[in-house]
Fold:
Amino acid sequence: MSIDDFIARLSILDEQASAPLDARRRRYEALHQHHRPADPPGMRVEDTQIAGVGIRRFMPPSVKPGPVVYLHGGGWNLGSVQSHHGITANLASRLSREVISVEYRLLPEASYAEALADCVTVVEATGPVALGGDSAGGRLAIDVAATTDWPGVLGLIYPVVGTPTLATLGEDAPLLTRADVLSLWQMANQGTTIDRGPMPAVDPHRPPAEIIEALAVERDPLTRPLENAIEQWRAAGARVGYRCAPDMVHSALHGHAELEPMKNAWQQFCQALDRRLG
Structure:
């Protein structure tokens, strides 16, 4: 598949930007489920809960000790363990580890603080050796690690880092513009009260973990701030691996089985995580 075909396939989500949120969520789920690759042979999948938080466990036939927790993307208001099933099943297969995907609460029904609390609950209950996420889930992973002094490996796929502004973001790209990022950021930070607090104030210069593996795509306004953050994290002493998939766009991880540059970068990312985990 070409990247243009992939963009055309997902552009229907942009066309429904003004539709009611429930309709957009249904379309998002249906689109990713329809194009989801088959589970790797022997993969066992179980839906359960931890302290009231929904999770989906992916268990490959041969399992190394120590699970991985994964936080899905979707702008904090879309996405689920179902929409990202193909990604997490493939991650479990490549790492030969159990992957626990978290069904954290979504905005605007919940606050960002409540979504973060769900993720912290699962991480503290399962003691993973690695924590990862893509896009909005990557930001949740950063905040879980930074606010809990989490000691493991952090895996980030085109995350939201720092405080996005027109000055810090890169150029607009297909499937994600600067206006999109700023609108979602505003949503995540609004409507806060004492017990529905804002996003945590995380020092962007301080590494959220000592060991980080990051994956970005070339055509994405989030890539520039991520690369700037990586320079700062490395200067502060963190060990950070980084690769960027050429010509790929935000959301291309959903096409990791069809887009050759994304497949290669994803494979390198997973291999780097595996090496970090020994």
